[in-house]
Write a structure and sequence with these properties.
The complex is a heterodimer. Chain A is an all-alpha fold. Chain A folds into 2 domains: about 150 residues, no CATH class; about 230 residues, MetI-like (MetI-like fold). The longest helix of chain A is centred in the middle third of the chain and has 41 residues. The radius of gyration of chain A is 32 Å and the shape is flat. The two termini of chain A are about 60 Å apart. Chain B has 3 domains: about 55 residues; about 140 residues, no CATH class; about 220 residues, MetI-like fold (Orthogonal Bundle). Chain B is about 65% helix and about 5% strand. Chain B has 18 helices and 3 strands. In chain B, helix 10 packs across helix 17 and helix 13 crosses helix 15. Chain B is flat, with a radius of gyration of 32 Å. The chains are: A mainly alpha, B mainly alpha.
């Protein structure tokens, strides 16, 4: 809260600095702004920028290090008895102190030494806040007046402001890159810790998955097994069912909409199909679990088939429906990109419309279609909510679509929701699964882009 | 010469003979296309019909008319109680007494307990609020409508079937008899369900509402929008207008395309490690949810904004540069305003996707059971899709219709947002 107030104050100071800078520019130009290098507003922005950016930087560093420094100072003043505690007990003491400071009720009565330390902490925090305000204020005033005094008619204020803006743009553009790094780092490091406990080969090729680690070593079922093969099989099975639904229907829809349908029909139907893509996956999951799965189970029992109540078929079918618009809109784009001359040539040779499409248009559009299907597969593999709600938790190594299977994403969710310690192999396993998922989908995307680029027919 | 002609005729004959078959094949081919489109539309309507038919009844709720005599003795307060005593009074006792006076013949312990279950325990809070607002009510008889228990609600709405054997349904025969008497006496009514829109989550379906989740979604979306919109535009501007065409900008471009296809749950893992463990931000808070969703929607916004910037014709840029504007001025004052409708459309579509997203938020603890309505971006909260997930997991029949109702609310929001995007595109789209 204090930081927010400081930032608000800083913004106010910047606004004043902008105004002063602008006025100074006018007075330097003696009322005729044609004497200036830049428009007066740029001089204002220039001063405001010099006031704001260094102060923000200091504020940021201060906030990052403040609580650490204060904690160290408080610790140094703690009684010897408390200071000689082991690291994890010491953490408890620190959190007790911090709770006392923030006014939360500490469990039980407050120890006198902790109370003293808490008061010490509060005093230090107060000093730090006051010091921060003084530092920032003097920085703003000092730098502000310095840059104000430097304003003259020849100064290239616009260029300076634009350079700073460009720097900001670059910073924003690199966030995308930082995100990738962040994803890699977060899954990679945790996975490496997991692979220290469970060997990579056991994880990738093991046939048994039961991540229940016991708390005590002598408990029943204490042997956690982390063979992820059943999860991979389950993921592939469900994705396969989904693709069996989505590819034929999506592709045929795309062909019909781009080759046969009247513009009017197309204008109505295409947005309707895209609604399917805009429905949240949790809605599909609800639909799969409450409508489709019981339906399949009832139909199966009428035919005398044993269908699990959380069958792979239900999840796969619904996921397929979700992916239809994905396949159809990607295929639609590439089919429409095939030049009319190719069709006219085929018609000229006496081919029927269906033959033209099958023998000429589709082969010409094939790389794009394959790329789209690969992207759709990566979508199916990474899809979470449908399988969490409609597929089971039991890791069966089965290719029977009527069995209950589980997937990589389902296991990530089950391992990481709920309360458990962060360092157990059980939670770390989720990151290993995340790593596999990330690498696999990344590879599919890269291959898809490569296929599209490499085999794209260049017309004209 | 005479040898060639019959052969030519033969060729035509061969073609003609095959023609019927080929036309039939063409018709079949076209038919499969129609069937595919039809099937997609069928799935769409099936989904909507299924959700609607399950959910529309949740907008009504069964209420029971109770005459509660506010007896200070049962309430456990004196004749002139202070507010503190009133707040801690035994309002459950009042409710039970009111039910007992309505059905004086019920004596057995087990049956009494069954009787008390007809009315939601939420009625106690309603009573408390009424008495605390007007302490003069003590000693009088208050007549009010209170929400019925979810089982009663389900029976009235026909979701619990009377034909089932007694052991297979959640209401006993004598309970159904009491309910029928209440109906005959006009003491049961079906009204618009305001609780659904004014309450937070609850374990009891009749007291559960979506307001908490809606407010949580609102805060999360605010964080997402205020970060992803400026950052997305800035990144798009740099990549489209200023970045030198070299390996580095190629790499960033490939990177963004790949990020758009990374499964959303992986972003949840990132949030868990970076924001919760490393930066120690509060669990379950809209702030963290918004940060994760920002990273997730950024690629969408950047790609859409780049397309919008690229569609502004070069003549605009050249004209501005020609009269002496700097590249940055050209961009900020001429190109960006023209590209803004496209940028906004992309942003709305990205936000719609973020609003429906569930999986990454499960990873950062927004899946907790939270009764209170959040008041800021640091409060623990949940969002609408996660609420749907939580309710879908609950076994009570009353939650099935509430889940569907919550889905309907979510879909309405999404439809409005998408319609807005379409209108924006239609009304500001410019052909150059």
């Amino acid at each position: 809260m204090y930081t927010l107030e400081l930032i608000a104050g800083l913004l106010l100071l910047c606004a004043i600095a902008y105004h002063l800078g602008r006025r100074r520019a006018f007075s330097v130009a003696q009322g005729n702004i044609r004497h200036l290098h830049s428009l007066p507003a740029y001089y204002g922005l220039y001063v405001a920028m010099w006031c704001g950016l260094p102060a923000l930087f200091v504020l940021f560093l201060w906030t990052v290090f403040e609580s650490n420094v204060i904690t160290q100072l408080v610790l140094a003043d703690l009684p010897q008895k408390l200071r000689s505690l082991e690291a994890d007990r010491l953490e408890l003491v620190i959190s007790d102190i911090q709770n006392f400071v923030s006014g939360n009720t500490v469990s039980g009565e407050v120890d006198a030494s902790i109370k003293a330390a808490g008061l010490h902490y509060q005093r230090l925090q107060f000093t730090s806040h006051a010091a921060l305000a003084v530092v920032i204020l003097s920085l703003v005033i000092g730098v502000g007046f310095f840059s104000l005094s430097r304003i003259n008619a020849k100064q290239r204020a616009r260029n300076a402001v634009e350079r700073a803006l460009t720097g900001g743009l670059i910073a924003c553009a690199s966030i995308a890159f930082l995100t990738t790094i962040g994803i890699l780092m977060s899954v990679l490091f945790e996975s490496m810790r997991f692979f220290k406990v469970v060997p990579v080969t056991d994880f990738l090729f093991g046939l048994k998955w039961s991540p229940q680690m016991s708390i005590r070593a002598d408990q029943v079922g204490s042997s956690g097994a982390f063979g992820a093969a059943p999860l991979f099989v389950g993921t592939i099975l469900i994705s396969l069912i989904a693709m069996l639904v989505a590819v034929p229907i999506g592709l045929k829809s795309a062909i019909f909409l781009s080759e046969y349908a009247s513009p009017r029909f197309r204008a109505i139907t295409k947005p309707l199909l895209e609604i399917l893509a805009g429905i949240p996956t949790v809605v599909y999951g609800f639909f799969a679990a409450l409508t489709v799965a019981p339906f399949i189970r009832n139909q199966g029992s009428l035919l005398g088939l044993e269908v699990a109540s959380e069958s792979a078929l239900a999840a796969g079918l619904v996921m397929g429906v979700m992916i239809i618009p994905f396949v159809s809109s990607l295929s639609d784009d590439v089919i429409r990109a095939v030049p009319q001359a190719l069709r006219d040539g085929a018609f000229g040779l006496g081919a029927t419309k269906a033959e033209t499409i099958k023998r000429v248009v589709i082969p010409a559009a094939l790389p794009g279609i394959v790329g789209g299907v690969l992207l759709a597969i990566s979508r199916a593999i990474g899809e979470t909510m449908i399988v969490v709600m409609a597929a089971g938790l039991s890791a069966n190594l089965s290719f029977n679509p009527l069995d209950a299977v589980t997937t990589v994403t389902v296991q990530i969710v089950t391992l990481l929701t709920g309360d458990q310690e962060f360092d157990s192999p059980k939670t770390l396993a989720a990151f290993a699964l995340g790593l596999v998922l990330f690498i696999f989908t990344l590879a599919l995307n890269v291959i898809a882009l490569y296929v599209v680029r490499k085999y794209r027919e260049q017309y004209e | 010469m005479s040898a060639g002609l019959p052969r030519k005729k033969d060729t035509i004959e061969i073609v003609r003979r095959g023609l019927k078959k080929r036309h039939a094949a063409a018709r079949r081919f076209k038919f499969t296309g129609v069937a595919a489109v039809g099937m997609s539309l069928f799935f769409l309507s099936l989904l909507f019909v299924s959700i609607f038919s399950k959910g529309y009844s949740a907008f009504r709720q069964t209420y029971v008319h109770l005459d509660v005599s506010i007896d200070p003795e049962i309430l456990g307060v004196g004749a002139h109680p202070d507010m503190n005593a009133l707040a801690n009074g035994d309002y459950g006792g009042l409710r039970k007494a009111a039910l007992r006076t309505m059905f004086p013949e019920v004596k057995k312990r087990r049956e009494k307990r069954a009787l008390y279950q007809l009315v939601s325990s939420g009625a106690d809070y309603q009573l408390r609020d009424a008495v605390m607002a007007d302490p003069a009510l003590i000693g009088t008889t208050l007549s009010l409508w209170v929400p019925a228990d979810d089982d009663v609600d389900m029976l009235i709405k026909g979701h619990i079937r009377r034909e089932l054997p007694e052991d297979d349904r959640r209401l006993k025969d004598y309970q159904i008899a009491w309910i029928d008497r209440l109906v005959a006496a006009g003491r049961i009514e079906n009204r618009f369900n305001t609780i659904l829109f004014t309450a937070g989550d609850s374990r009891d379906p009749e007291q559960a509402g979506i307001l908490g989740a809606l407010v949580g979604s609102l805060f999360t979306m605010l964080v997402t929008l205020s970060l992803s919109f400026p950052i997305g535009i800035a990144a798009a501007i740099y990549l489209e207008e200023f970045a030198p065409r070299n390996r580095w900008s190629d790499f960033i471009e490939v990177n963004i395309n790949n990020l758009a296809a990374v499964p959303s749950i992986v972003f949840g893992l990132l949030g868990l490690v970076i924001f919760l463990t490393y930066f120690d931000l509060p669990r379950s808070a809209p702030l963290v949810g918004g940060l994760v969703l920002t990273l997730m929607t950024l690629p969408t916004i950047i790609i859409a904004s780049r397309a919008a910037l690229a569609s502004v014709p070069p003549s605009i840029r050249e004209a501005a540069l020609g009269i002496g504007a700097s590249p940055m001025q050209t961009l900020l004052f001429h190109v960006l305003p023209l590209a803004l409708p496209g940028v906004l459309t992309g942003t709305i579509i990205g936000m719609a996707r973020a609003l429906g997203e569930t999986a990454p938020l499960l990873m950062i603890g927004m899946v907790a059971f939270i009764v209170d309505i959040p008041t800021g971006i640091f409060d623990p909260s949940t969002v609408l899709p996660v609420q749907i997930y939580l309710w879908a997991d609950s076994p009570e029949r009353g939650f099935v219709e509430r889940t569907s109702a919550a889905i309907m609310v979510l879909l309405i929001f999404l439809i409005v947002m998408n319609a807005l995007a379409v209108i924006l595109r239609k009304s500001f789209e410019r052909r150059w």
